[in-house]
Amino acid sequence: MKKSLWSGIAAAVAGLLALTGCSGHPSEAAPGKGSFGDCTVTDNPPIHKMDTIQSGALTVAASLPYPAGYRGNTLDSVDGGYMYCLDAEIANRAGLKKIHLVNASFEALVTAKASNFDFAVWDIYNTPERRKVVDFSTPYNTYETGVLVKTGSKLTQDSIKNATVGVLAGSVQLKFVDDTLKPRKVRVFNSNDDLFNALLAGQIDAALNDTATVMPRAAKSGGKLEVLGKYPVGGDVAALFPKGSSKVEAVDLILADMKKDGTLKAIMDKWLNPILGGDPTKLPDWSS
């Protein structure tokens, strides 16, 4: 009887542990999904080991929620997305089996106010100003800036100078609107959700952000939002590291391997390109 009772308790405890796999701890996906949710990782790739904060796990920072890059609205539920699957492949090629996600604001990442992670992947531009306080990998993609508005907006590349424009704190778009565009009013937000909700509420006339951010948001808005144009503001995006990190070299080698064997392109083709809702290169250029 006692043996049977303890067997039942052990099974129940195991079940509870399986259900509480995330919540700030390294976790593996459910059986049949592998260790990285719905991401497909390369079998037997070249391994470039790195010393990580948590043994056997890659701790990745991002500003969540961001379903386009990290599919799922909480740390616990993320199981896909082009950024998460990039993280997964890097972890896989570092000989790691788990990802530990931590949340951090965009401004905290680019100003080094947060450092409790191995690296951050959130389509962060590698700029000279940011390199003073953080380190970057080689780039994994290149973006420009899109102009997101409510559908039916009469905003033009001329009238935007008389508009209220919203941007993220610490972003390249903030520097652009302050130094170059100089609209009538600029509002600064700490998260994409705050930025886009302000646009939907009519508190701003346009939101400026990366094309890879505004295009999926418009595509999934149910016709409420559209991208009218773009500015050649942006550049290379890369993984961000705390200053002096020893992991940069390993990640650079992994990214080089991924570019050479086509894995990086395959991730973007599967996870990013379908959600853009169009070709960003065909957006009207508002800088001319």
TrEMBL record:
Keyword annotations from UniProtKB, A to Z: Signal
CDD domains linked: PBP2_peptides_like (cd13530)
The UniProt record lists the keyword Signal: yes
InterPro entries xref list: Solute-binding_3/MltF_N
Protein name: Amino acid ABC transporter substrate-binding protein
UniProt domain Solute-binding protein family 3/N-terminal: residue ranges: 57-275
Leader sequence segment: 1-29
